[in-house]
User: What shape does this take?
Amino acid sequence: MLMGKKGLKIIVVGAGKVGDTLVNRLAEEGHDLVIIDKNVDRLTELANLCDCMGIIGNGASHEVLEEAGIATADLFISVTESDELNLLCCTIAKQFNKNLATIARVRNPDYGKEIPYLRSKLSLEMIINPEYEAAVEAARILFLPAAISINSFAHGSAELVKIKIPEGNVLDGKTIAYLGSNYTNDLVIVGVERGDEVTIPNGSFELSAGDIISFVATRKVCHSFLKSIGFNTNSVRSTIIIGGGKSAYYLADQLIKTGIDVKLIEKDPERCEELSDLLPKATIINGDGINESLLEETGIRDVDSVVALTGIDEENIMLTLFARQISRDIKSVTKINKISFTDVINRLDLGSVIYPKLITSEAIITYARARQASIGSNVEVMYHLFDERAEAIEFKVKEPSSATGKQLKEMKLKPNTLVSFINRSGRIIIPTGSDSIEVGDSVMIVTKNKGFTTLTDIVR
Amino acid sequence: MNIRMLVYILGKVLLIEGALMLMPVICGLFYGEVQVFYYIGLAAIYIGAGFLISLKKPKNMTIFIKDGCVATALSWLVLSVCGCIPFVLTREIPSFTDAMFETASGFTTTGASILTDVEAMSHTSLMWRSLTHWIGGMGVLVFLLAVVPMTGGSNMNLMRAESPGPTVGKIVPKVRSTAKMLYLIYLVMTLTEIILLFVCGMPLFDSICTAFGTAGTGGFGVKNDSFASYAPHIQWIVGVFMIMFGANFNFYYYITTKQISKAFKMSEVRVYLAVVAVATAIIFFSLRGMYDGIGETLRQSFFQVSSIITTTGFATTDFDLWPTIAKFILLSLMIIGACASSTGGGVKIARLQIMFKSIKREIHTYLHPRTVKKIHIDGKPVDGDIEHSVAIYFFIYLVTFASSMFIVAFEGHDLVTVFSSVAATLNNIGPGLSLVGPTHNYAFFSDVSKWVFIFDMIAGRLELLPLIVFLTPSTYKGIFKKAPRLQG
Assistant: This one.
């Protein structure tokens, strides 16, 4: 009737931590959401906060699923505590409706190697593992510690890197046009954070010390650019991980494979035993990480990075602050679960922060946008930048439309929208006014507008 | 408290009221009545003011349950005050109190009137009077939610504060779609009734006004004798439609989505229909010999039962002359009321179901002190909080009832008049018994009593709590003054 874009009908099982975040963000995207959980209180709380409908019951039950309207649903996401239940829910849901896309959270490392097998045999659309994703993101940061955060684009052919311009850096006081003519043309700055303001800059924008800039480039260009403006581009050599949960395991595993020295501190002696079986090359230390003398003993002064991965946000923050007090140069990565206090966290000098829940929900929102989009173009990947004040969206262009075949300078883009790069069969083009978008390209758009689902949304 | 959002909501409510006033304008232009100019002027003022007030969308649109209650209560006050101005300006109801009574009675779908001669009113004003029923029936905020896009789940708190019933749930995941769905069902049913009545020989104007009165379960008629002079088959149609509008709207949602068996398994609807059947049967037998033939007796008893249980308040006969047992049944029906999530008033069948089941459970625990037992409705356990809120509702209901009677009793009318006038306003019915019976009206009460009735009508329509939250001083603690800072 009066509605613009129609949302998908999505059923989410499990109103836990991940479910919460996911539901909130999917509701903002305008989807029709039904949440199934056994816990009445959690459901009521969630239903009071966002526009969704709660159903009390077991998500694997036939009757409950029917009541949730599984027959007409488009997407089914199971994110309960238990991997097995998630898989069972998805399997049963699939029986109702062959076209239903199912997504399960599976995070036990026991299944780690079997993910592709499970996916194809149970015909799941996606298996999400927030702990693993968090570890991958943390590892990426440790490999290039100069960056605050790194996300991959276009399946790894380009990277979105965020750096802070330090005092006295060569970029201080330079315009973006100057950067293009004197350093490299193969890089595009998609956003600048200055204080609380976020700008999607044009050529005349002048950078200054303290700005946090986000740019997109291929890995090679990124490294050479960072080197040329005086950043260190070596990976870290040693790290201390505090907290021995699943993401710590995934992270340590990746770091050890590239030869980084890992020390891991974990409270629970039994978990330590397990970890030492799983990670023979790591130094596992049994003890409470929230202990100054233990950290000193472990050698916090001798490592060049520290990763706080305990289950409690407050502890992680304290650990990072402590580590940065010992040495200003130490690279720190902090895991934060609750997303309610991002403003407070941004004001603290924490270095890199990872939000496992956001990483997961981003993947699911991307999927939902792609499902929602018209046939002409598809959302490939989407990232929220600057605390959700801007979005970077990658579109795969499948058909000609009002946004293709025209020079960019002739197109009227919506305000605060930027075509940041075009991937033409593997070649990255940083577009100028005379470039155009062609069918077959992948295009990355950065915008402060919300909810773009097709490429034509960029045109005014 | 989110004051900006409250102002925004009130602006939109005013805008909607102004837009709706165009309906009597059309009617007035059609009949060429002078009163129409007042309506045109007011509609323009309301639309303009509402537009300006709600021009700027607040950044923070979150509404907590407290804000929801205040917004609802304020909206209804604004609606009633702005809605009564045309009556005062056209001099058709010159006294402000009387006009306010009439409008509040309209929006709250009570149908109690202070007019001694309805037929003397202009068509424009009659149309407006009936339209207030239609808006009030489903609720203006529900309408607002349906037409104005508002993000965030907290809007549910607006709907919860305005809609009747012990639990207000959504029928589809989104608040907006739920609100739209409800209004769509409401609109379709109303149009069906208008067409049906018109085809059966009622004049179009009467059909529209009657359908509005039925749909909102209001009860304002356009004739002095309410409904007595209409043909028997028209009375049957209206009788059945009243029952339909008093049923839980989830019932119709299930029917439109082809879940017929689920619809007829709704225990509330079943109990509701059973109560109607039993009440009609008892009254039918008690009326033996009063009317000509079985057909008319049945029609009179059914119409009155249907009108009272749904809290509409149309009358086809002076039921004040009926035997005591019949009057008692009607008085009980007044308090029972219609289904939750319908347009009707009263205590609601769903609440009574929960209450009776908790009594049964309580007795059971006396016999078996260690049993653990939950109450179930439609096969689903009822949360302890809901049970608790139902009990509290009953108590507040009784306290409101008693205090209103206390004030009205000072006027010195007989007890039946006092009791039934409070019952008829608090439950949004309209006519009561004795001096406020179907052939009488509320004009003779003093202004003080009229304001008590206005309070009762709005409190009854909003199911007491929102209005009480609105009137509780601690709701407003700290809204004008920021907490002192302890640190420089």
In short: The two ends of chain B are 25 Å apart (CA to CA). The first strand of chain B starts at residue 376 and ends at 377. Chain B touches chain A through 20 residues (CB under 8 Å).
